[in-house]
Amino acid sequence: MFQVKICGITSLADAQAAADAGADAIGLNFYADSPRFVQQETAREICQRLPQLIKVAVFVNETVTTIG
After folding, report:
1. Mean pLDDT estimate for the chain
2. How many CA atoms lie within 13 A of 10 on its CB side?
């Protein structure tokens, strides 16, 4: 058995498309210099509206305090 994660989600529509396609998890990129950066407010909305998906956060060189 395997699970599928779609990374680089930047909008609720993208997250919904991933869920509709059967993804088990989505990746949310919080590295500001990335073209796939997602705003915290958008990420919060995605998490609230699609609770069935596993969420994986991507950070680059952040402190535990910032992430937590």
Report:
1. 97
2. 7
